[in-house]
Amino acid sequence: MPKAAAKAKTAKRKTATRKPIAKAKPVRKAKPVYKTRPAARAKAKSVAAKLVRAAKPRRKAAAKRKSAPAAQAKTVPRQKFNVSHLDSSEFKRDGLRSYAAYRDLGMAEATNGMVLAHVIRMLPPCTDEVRKRHYHDVQLQLVYVLKGWMKNEFEGEGEHLMREGSCWIQPAQIRHTVLDYSDDCEVLEIVMPAEFATAEV
User: Fold this and answer.
1) DSSP assignment of 62-131, as one string?
2) In the beta sheet, which residues pair with residue 49?
3) Is pLDDT of 10 > 70?
4) What distance in Å separates the CA atoms of residue 13 and residue 70, rounded to the nearest whole number?
5) For residue 145, what pLDDT band results from cuts at 50, 70 and 90?
6) Verdict on whether the full-model pTM lies above 0.70
């Protein structure tokens, strides 16, 4: 047998006896581990804390809104419907001042003592008894001139001439003086509460 043929036969035999090489499995890359820097972690915590703090007032406000009707029902006195029509015979001289006649509008009873409303008819003439300086211990005092005019002086506010249609609020305990009024002067006065103290100074 020629040498070349023998070599080819030997190579063929070697190839047949060789084990096939197994294909290597692809190597999975490990997921990268990201390490948060201390500064970034601190910033994230700070933002989270701010969000929590911001949410608290909203929760409190929502709780207040829910409880408001119940609280309001406790603080506001019960009221009932009331109407008062003009009747000149209702003017009585049994009010705060002897120089005035009062027509009670029935609001004190209707509001369970929360509000007093009456029409005051000033009786002429305006004397020194009228001009005594005084103040009222009230939460609200509103006066509206229905007829005529009235001249007053208020602490820190000076003198004011109130004519028909004039309206003013006297802050609590403001010292004031009635200086003069017309013979036909009538005013509507609304006061809170219905029971209040008056002091001369």
Assistant:
1) HHHHHHHHHHHHHHSPP---------GGG-BS-SS-TTEEEEE-SHHHHTTTS-EEEEEEEPSS--TTTT
2) none
3) no
4) 102
5) very high
6) no
